[in-house]
Amino acid sequence: MIAHDFDYHAPRSLADALALLGQADAAVLGGGTWLVPNMTYGRQRPSAVVDIRRLGLDAIEIAGDIVVGAGVTYRQVLQSEALRAKLPLLAMMAGQVTGGPQIVGQATLGGSACYANPSSDVPACLVALDATLRLASRTGHREVKAADFYTGAFQTTRRPDEMLTHMVFAPPPGGAGCGYHKLKFSTGSWPIVTAACIAVAATDGGPRHRLAVGGANAVPVLLEIDGRDPDEAVAARLPSLISQEWSDEFAGAGYRRQVAPAIASRALRQARGAR
Amino acid sequence: MAIPEQESAANGTGPALSHAGVGTAAWVGRDIPRKDADRFVLGHIDYTADMIAPGTLRVAIVRSSHAHARIGRIDTAAASAAPGVVAVFTGADVRACSAPMPTRVPRERFPGPVDIWCLAADEVLYVGQPIAAVVATSLNDAEAAKSLVEIDYDMLEPVLDAAAALAPGGALARADWPTNVVARDTIRQGDLDRAFQAAFRTVGGEISFGSGTSAPMEPRCYIADWDDRASHLTLHGTLQQPHPTRWMLAQVLGLREAQIRVVAPPAGGTFGLKMVGHPEEALVAILSRELKRPVAFLESREECFLANAREQTHRFEIAADAQGRIIAFRNTIVADVGAIGAGGGWVMAMVTPTVFPTVYDVPNVAVDAVAVTTNKPPWQGIRGYGKETANLVMERAVELIAVELGMSSIEVRRRNLLPKQAFPHRLPSGLNLDSGDYAPALDQLLDLFPLDEWRQRQQDADSNDKRIGIGFAFDLTPEGASFPGSMQAGFETSTVTVDPTGTVRVATSVTSPGGGNETGIAQIVADVFGLLPDDVTIIQGDTDITPFGTGNTSSRSLMFGGAAAVLAARELKSRVAACAATLLQAEPGELVFAQGRICVDADADRSVPFKQAVSTIYTHAYSIAADIELPLQVIKTYRSPNIRHVPDEFGRISAYPSFPYSVHAAAIEIDVATAQVRVLDYAAIHDCGVVVNPGLVEGQFRGAVAMGIGAALWEELLYDESGATRTNRFKSYVLPRAPDLPRIRMGHRVTPSPFQPLGTKGAGESGFGGAMSVITNAIADALGEHGRHVNRVPFKPDRLLPLLAGALS
User: Which Pfam families match (chain B) (predicted)?
Assistant: First the structure.
């Protein structure tokens, strides 16, 4: 139950939505799987809620670049044959989201991207895929690379008057492999550490890996590693990149830094094998 | 009624479906679906919260944000003026119009005055303690106005763990008590010093348990409706114990019991949480009487996680002779029971020491237990009720001494299990074990669990990648708690009525937590009359129409409530038999009740329908039925002959009548890189005496195992440095889900209790401690030689990882 009063808007145009965002301490409502519980627990008390359901942001377009609307749900990702063919990593990630239809069919990729929970699956995936985030506001539009979007736990470069409209992905080169490995302690647990990896074949010295580790740090950690035996590089470099280690009720200080290399190696192995 | 055939239930296949022969049970032992299953599945059941009528006022509770403080000024003016708000009550308001809540046990047991009010009056004792009640026309308005109540706190030093509570000269968790120690127990049997000196091998260890909670699907809810013109209160609520709740309300409100009706609608699980003594039970009643309107409280999930339990530390030592006989065991227990409320949750800490040395025959035993109060939320009843920790510690001790002896722990168990002929057996605490057949249960388990195969897989596993561990554990669960001087005094009452159409009504004091005991009671009563369970209606949870009793706690429903129903039914049967004997021109002793008919044993053609005999009694009260006592209604109370409240020669009482046991085996796998544990295989043998309904027993047992695995691996309440509960959602306090659990293979043994008319023992909590223990032993096994250092439950990976590192090095 939400204790405070607020205005609910479901505008029919992006311009109307952006006008509302510019006025008040408004919150954007995607699937609501974050916003509604947070409002219920009094952790967010927006005076207005702007629902994006009528803005047509739930499309997946594949024409050269792959453009995923901010309102696309995990289920839509899983149901799109084309997306699964072009961005299998995204489908792998969506396929491992638990919570049943109430979460998978309701929660949006854009919502998860913007909420920036260190424990969520989406941010590190966007970083691994080098996604570009399109942000819109009354005063204009801009594009931000996923790796630059995350500034801290639950913090992004999105301004309160801005709305994420789309996530844009360049299709990985042919022959690229991908891997997604997630450590969670039980079905109901948050992800503890996630690793998303794209492996691209190179002519000399083995594949190139673009690896993003989520859950372990306040923001996703990106590593680019070349070579046939990247595990050593991961073990050497990853722990020091976890500069703001995340800890919570599931695992205290030190745990995630310690186990992250193993999780990363599993994603790397999968990416090399899954090509 | 004779004790029913046991073998039918023993092999788990159930008896033949046809009516059995003369004198045997037709329905006991059968796996029939629970009564009203369709209504539950189709959503046609009204739970308490479904009964909040339009126009009912709603309560939001302002709770303490500090662990320990004196309450200064409370300003309710702004909240009182907020939209929809009808009233704001504080502790002072409550004190002006009611009496303190009675505690469940005598006040003289506590070290200081125990006035417990439903809203804190002077001093707050934990984060989350109710301080003020905001009553509004809608829950939204009540919740919204909560933040407008201003409270001045005068900080007191909080006591947040047992070590601080016991520190000499340390802070006091309750300012007007001279000590933080709320209870002690000292149990002695034999000569410990001599036994330890004479021992061939000794070993010791320490195990601590984190806090846990019950987290039922349905949170608590209470609806009070005071009828001012009739001076009568009706309380509907999520209540396991409607009669004790009425007793509590009568004292708080200064009313006679006759002025109060307490109703417990069907429950969505409780696991001990909904026992009497929550402040909101009294609060809504007080508010309704003062405001002369119905008032409802519905607990949020966050509030539900304030229910604390189990945090304790054991330091134990065990000794064995050269033949592997355990000759001595000693243990010191320190339990942190949080703040003391009106409920009896803290009693669990005093049950733990009484269970040692569980299923083993140990001549020399010493257990010292101390319960300390701290400024954490009060303990609330939870499945296991303290027995689970005793079992886990005992099972660890057996494993450790087996290592010292160089013997397999299975062999050590075999050499020390109490033999069948040793029963009844008095434990050092005074508890009198009714019956058991432990070693054959272990054999039966080894038929069900492929030990050799798992040992092979353990050897074959790449120990740098995955470690496999195999565990065994016994579990002894005393059931049917009957504490002297409390409203859990150890009897239950059933009123059985045969109505004029020949159907049967059982109004019983035991309530159903949602586990299906009504179906079991219908089965045993149907057998008395030779009727169908569908002919028997069970009425529960209404103090106006059910007789007095404890309610549903400690797996007592069939053991006590069912037994009382059988005793009453047997008396009614003899009345109906008297009438039938006249109708059939036979002797009552010749008659058999089966398949809805009453027939002459030797001549099946001479019979009369049960309904006809009953109808005759109701319609011929001056002729055929002139000598039959009317109405056809009998009330009986059942008291167990295996409860002793008079201290024995050692000064001990026996507060539990029944001792179901189980033996468990599990295989687990630890991911070496992350210390994540997965349960690969699970098997158990369970013995609760005569099984009335195998499906219901298996459902309870599997639920207990699932809960035990959760408590061993994932579930832990955490508190921050201010004493606030950090784990207040299902995303931070994680219950096991189906994909997290293996298939639980289960077998029955049936060793009837000689003390209970049907031979049944409690079934409900049994298995919980065994599951915690077997997972613990399996994890220790996976760690090899380093397993001896296992010392903390649950095994969250961040704690297990350093142990694993030690095992690898």
Answer: Ald_Xan_dh_C, MoCoBD_1, MoCoBD_2
Q: CB under 8 Å to A41, separation ≥6 — which residues?
A: B302
User: Is B721 at the interface with chain A, CB within 8 A?
Assistant: no
In the numeric block, the tokens 């010791």 are attached to B204
- Which helix (H) or strand (E) segment is B615 a member of? helix B610-619
B 661-700 residues with CB < 8 A to A: 673-676
Q: Domain spans of chain A? A: 7-51, 177-274
Q: Which residues contact B452 (CB under 8 A, 6 or more apart)?
A: none
Cβ(B204)–Cβ(B403) under 8 Å?
Answer: no
Residues of B with Cβ-Cβ distance to A190 under 8 angstroms? 731
CA proximity to B770, closest of B686, B670, B699: B686
Give the residue from B507, B514, B505 showing the smallest Cα distance to B45: B514
Q: Are residues B373 and B388 in the same domain?
A: yes
| DSSP letter string, B174-242 | STTSS-SEEEEEEEEES-HHHHHHH-SEEEEEEEEE-B-----SS--EEEEEEETTTTEEEEEE--S-H
Q: Do residues B476 and B770 lie in contact, with contact meaning Cβ atoms separated by under 8 Å?
A: no
Which pTM was predicted? 0.95
Both tokens of B619, joined, read 């319609």
Name the helix (H) or strand (E) containing B538. strand B536-540
Q: DSSP code of B776? A: H
SS3 state at B282: helix
CATH of A7-51, one of 3.30.43.10, 3.30.70.260, 3.50.50.60, 3.40.50.1820: 3.30.43.10
Domain that holds residue B535: 491-639
Rounded Cα gap, residues B426 and B295, in angstroms = 49
d(CA B127, CA B124): 8
Among residues B185, B458, B143, B162, the alpha carbon closest in space to that of B299 is found at B143
Phi, psi for B643 (deg, rounded to 5): -115, 135
For A13-26, the pLDDT digits (tens) are: 999 999 999 887 99
Note whether B126 and B377 are within 8 A (CB). Answer: yes
Q: pLDDT tens-digit profile of B523-561?
A: 999 999 999 999 999 999 999 999 999 999 999 999 999
Given a cut of 80, whether residue B809 has pLDDT beyond it is no
Q: How far apart are CA B475 and CA B660, in angstroms?
A: 8
Q: Tell whether B293 and B315 lie within a shared domain.
A: no
Closest by CA to A133, choosing from A194, A123, A79, is A123
The SS3 of residue B460 is helix
Tokens of B254: 């200064």
Q: Which CATH class is domain A177-274?
A: alpha beta
Whether residue B612 is found in the same domain as residue B680: no
- Rounded CA gap, B1 and B10, in Å? 20
Q: Strand A140-145 vs strand A132-137: parallel, antiparallel, or unpaired? A: antiparallel
Q: Are residues B462 and B516 in the same domain?
A: no
Q: Least CB-CB distance to A252: which of B731, B734, B798?
A: B798
Q: What pLDDT is attached to residue A174?
A: 82
DSSP state of B508: E
Q: Are B606 and B617 in contact, with CB atoms under 8 Å apart?
A: no
Rounded Cα–Cα distance for residues A63 and A168 (Å): 11
Chain A 41-60, residues with CB within 8 Å of chain B CB atoms:
41
Residues from chain A that touch B144, judged by Cβ atoms under 8 A, are: 3-5
Backbone dihedral region for residue B791 (phi beyond 0: left; psi -120 to 50: alpha; all else: beta): alpha
Least Cα distance to B659 among B762, B770, B560, B765 occurs for: B762
Its ipTM equals: 0.94
pLDDT single digits (tens) B377-435? 999 999 999 999 999 999 999 999 999 999 999 999 999 999 999 999 999 999 999 99
Whether A188 and B735 lie within 8 Å, measured CB to CB? yes
Contact by Cβ (8 Å): A137, A18:
yes
